[in-house]
Every structure is written in structure tokens, then in C-alpha cells.
Design goal:
The protein has one helix and 41 strands. With about 475 residues, it is an all-beta fold. The chain is globular and about 75 Å long.
């Protein structure tokens, strides 16, 4: 697990207990700074004050150790999580409630929570993805189960009128507060059962994309609550029948990306970026623009209406588009970890852009206001072997053994809150072993600390336990 404190990345090695480090499916932080992690087979992991605690069927109300793909913290500070056999709420005082006792248990037998969202009204919506699929609503007015065929991989969206909209592989659902309504090709103009993404325009009209690779029947749709408008490749000149993600900018322009019909990812495989201004559809691809890849896996739009694109593939990387000019940041001209970008998040709190990558590419980060020019790769793989620390736990001093010919420039010590305790320059160090006493490092009490070494090729952080 990696924490960013605004200046530094701190890596926490999750202890290898009962295999629960095997896969971490989900992560969520609550208001008091506690981090909750859901694992594949080891239950729930609680991280607080630098200490990991495993919570499983042997020491909690959990009925199974496989935690959901999605954890959720609501506005009251309750942590919600799902297993194969029950839904659990943990309140801020660590009181547990299990939620399948008053619901028909057969719906959840063998199922797994795949997504969860809290609505503006405070209702929890949960989708399941195995066995007999269903959608669950948990609220102060009671719990309700809505069954449906193939509602796995559902996502929840909330409009300003109080409706809950649900995209799924079996169509589109709307809950108006009392009734769940299902839209599909059988009872609506939708051309495909597979609804991929939803968005709302400035008038709160619903827009969405539908279609699956290989079906050749996808569409972009608009629904105002009464009337449908359908846009297709054949009738309206869309670049493909597999529309995927869509976002509105502040001017009401709709931006979309399409998936390649064959499911292949690479800069030549895809349809680039598409714009709809309410009248005309315009496509930008490698043949008619400076976009570096036709495969786009994510779109984010900043407050200045600049588009940030995960243009995936060799030479692709991260692309900024202001409507006229293209700026491309890849491994050949920036510190981007990999050209195979997969996701983008805009972090206004820290003025950062976060970029994820495929193929073990790791994570990249850049300053938002800098326009991406200071992109930095965050890699935790090769650097993890830079050095070893011993003894660990330590009582009076610590040895830092460098592994190989590493040009280390500095050493820093942080406490669990991320506060810098000590910084030492190591430029020109040729010794493979660095011996330091704890007082020299400004460590004067027991607890967890983090040792960070920085060199020309990156940095590496490891945890040190100090005993009194």
C-alpha cells in the first residue's frame, strides 16, 4: 500500500498473514484517517496509526473472508463492505451490523458485491456479480431487493431530480424513489442490452453509451424522461458501433471514446476522440489530427475545459487537448512511467494529475497547473530491492545495506503521519553499509518510521519498527 502525503510517497508493506496480502480488491479511507482494505481470501484489513489488523470470520461477524471489489464510506462515517455471504456495516464506534438476515438469503448465495454507492439522500445501493444477480437498496426506511437477469457489473448514477440510474449488462434501470423501471431493446429504442456509461447534461437529461464488442449494434442515447434520441454508426456517422466512455464539458459539449471491435489495445486499434456539439459529430484520430493513439481508455476534463486523455499504446501516454492544440507526454519526452496509460484522476486538493498504467507500468503523477510538464513516475518494483534495513525491529540503531551499484543522493526519515524527521545528503557515498544511531535520525520513541532513499533513477521507502 502506498500513501502520498503531499510531498512524498510512503510504501507500507502489508504483512503476509494467512495469504491476505494475495490480492487487495478495494481500498477506502474514513474521516479519522483509518484505511480499510478488502482482500481476496483474508478478510478485511484495517490500517490505523501505522498498524495493520486482519479482520476475518474468526474474529468478526464476517460470514466469508472474500471482501467485495468495492468498499464504501457514507456521510455518517459508516464503512460498508460485502462478502460472498453478507453485507456488513461498521459504524464510527466499531459496532458491526450484518444485513442479510432480514432479506431473502437465497439471492446472495454465492454472490459477490461488485459495486456500491451512497446516493445524495443517504441510501446505499449495492450490486452483486455472481449467482442470482440482484440490486440491493439499504436505507433508513428499510431494505429492498430488486432482482434482474445479468445485473452484474452495474454502476450507479444520481440525477438532480432524485432518481437513481443503473447501468448494467442487461439494460438500463431507473429508480424514482418507489419503483424500479427497466429499459432494454425489448421495451425501448435501446439497440443493445449492454449499457456501458452514463452522464447528465446541463438540463439533467440522461446520456449514455450502449454496445458490446462483436455485436455491431451499439448506440449513444439521450433520454429526457419521456423521449429517446438514438445515435448510431449507420444513421449518424459515429466512428464505431462500440461507444464506451463519455463526459460533458462546462459548455455542454459531449466527448466520447469508442472501444475497438476486436477488443485489442494499441495505438492503431481504436477510433480516437469524438465530439458532439449538439448538432455535429467530429472525430479526431491519428489520420486527421495530432492525437498520438486511437485507443483512449479514459477521459477527464479539468476546470478550464482542457481534456486529459489516456491515449494508450507505444508513443501515446498522456494527452492534453484544449480544443485546438494537442500536447503529448510519453516516455520519450517526460518522466511518465509507461506509454500504456489506462486511467486519469484530477486531484484539485493537491493540484495533481494521477495516471495509471497497464502492463505493470505503475503510477505517474504531475502538477495540474503545470500542464503536465513535471510528470514523475512512481515505481515500487525495481526500487524495492535497493536496500535492506536491519535489525528490524530496532532499539538503538539501524544498518542500511545498499544492494548493488546505486547512486544514492539522500536519506530521509518520516514518522507515520508523514512528518519529516531527518534529511541527510549521501551524494558521493561509496560504502555499501550505512550505520546510524536512532538519536542521529531524530527518533526518540518507539513506533513505526519510514526510511526513504532517493537516487537519480527514483526513490525507495521501507518501514522500520522501533521498540522502546
Amino acid at each position: 500500500m502506498v500513501q502520498y502525503n503531499g510531498e512524498n510517497f510512503i510504501s507500507y508493506e502489508i504483512p503476509h498473514i494467512d495469504n491476505y496480502y494475495d490480492f487487495i480488491y478495494s481500498l477506502e479511507a474514513d474521516a479519522d484517517g483509518t484505511v480499510w482494505l478488502g482482500s481476496r481470501v483474508g478478510g478485511l484489513i484495517k490500517f490505523k496509526d501505522g498498524v495493520f489488523k486482519q479482520i476475518n470470520v474468526s474474529n468478526s461477524p464476517l460470514l466469508a473472508n472474500d471482501i467485495a471489489f468495492d468498499l464504501e464510506v457514507d456521510s455518517d462515517g459508516n464503512v460498508w463492505l460485502g462478502t460472498r455471504h453478507n453485507l456488513v456495516r461498521i459504524d464510527p464506534d466499531d459496532n458491526w451490523s450484518s444485513y442479510y438476515e432480514d432479506i431473502n438469503y437465497d439471492y446472495f448465495q454465492g454472490s459477490r458485491v461488485t459495486s456500491a454507492n451512497v446516493s445524495p439522500a443517504g441510501d446505499l445501493w449495492v450490486a452483486f456479480g455472481r449467482g442470482d444477480t440482484c440490486i440491493l437498496k439499504v436505507s433508513d426506511n428499510g431494505n429492498r431487493v430488486f432482482t434482474g437477469d445479468n445485473t452484474n457489473n452495474s454502476k450507479f448514477f444520481f440525477d438532480r431530480k432524485g432518481n437513481t440510474w443503473i447501468s448494467s449488462q442487461s439494460g438500463l434501470y431507473r429508480h424514482d424513489g418507489s419503483t424500479l423501471q427497466h429499459f432494454s431493446p425489448e421495451n425501448s429504442p435501446l439497440t443493445s442490452y449492454c449499457v456501458n456509461a452514463l452522464a447528465f447534461d446541463g438540463d439533467d437529461n440522461l446520456w449514455g453509451t450502449a454496445g458490446m464488442a462483436g455485436e455491431n449494434n451499439g448506440c449513444v442515447f439521450k433520454y429526457d424522461g419521456v423521449n429517446w434520441t438514438i445515435y448510431t454508426e449507420e444513421a449518424d456517422g459515429l466512428p464505431s458501433s462500440t461507444p464506451h466512455g463519455l463526459k460533458f464539458d462546462s459548455k455542454g459539449t459531449l466527448w466520447l471514446h469508442f472501444r475497438y471491435d476486436g477488443g485489442v489495445i494499441g495505438k492503431e486499434y481504436g477510433y480516437g476522440l469524438t465530439k458532439f456539439d449538439g448538432t455535429n459529430w467530429t472525430s479526431y484520430n491519428m489520420d486527421n489530427s495530432d492525437i498520438p493513439s486511437n485507443t483512449i481508455l479514459d477521459i477527464e476534463i479539468d476546470r478550464e475545459d482542457n481534456l486529459w486523455l489516456a491515449t494508450c499504446g507505444k508513443g501515446g501516454g498522456l494527452t492534453k487537448f484544449d480544443g485546438v492544440d494537442w500536447e503529448v507526454y510519453n516516455t520519450s519526452n517526460s518522466g511518465l512511467a509507461s506509454d500504456w496509460t489506462s486511467g486519469i484522476a484530477l486531484d484539485y486538493h493537491r493540484d495533481k494529475i494521477w495516471i495509471t498504467h497497464l502492463n505493470d507500468g505503475g503510477l505517474s503523477v504531475a502538477g495540474l497547473n503545470s500542464g503536465g510538464v513535471d510528470i514523475e513516475a512512481v515505481r515500487m518494483d525495481a526500487q524495492a530491492e535497493w536496500f535492506d534495513i536491519y535489525p528490524n525491529p530496532a532499539k538503538t540503531g539501524v544498518n542500511i545495506r545498499l544492494n548493488g551499484d546505486i547512486d544514492v543522493q539522500s536519506l530521509e526519515i518520516f514518522d507515520v503521519s508523514g512528518q519529516l524527521l531527518c534529511r541527510r545528503k549521501l551524494t558521493g557515498n561509496t560504502q555499501p553499509l550505512i550505520q546510524l544511531s536512532l538519536p542521529v535520525l531524530n527518533i526518540d520513541r518507539g513506533g513505526f518510521y519510514f526510511i526513504k532513499l532517493t537516487g537519480k533513477s527514483g526513490s525507495c521507502t521501507k518501514r522500520l519498527l522501533v521498540t522502546d
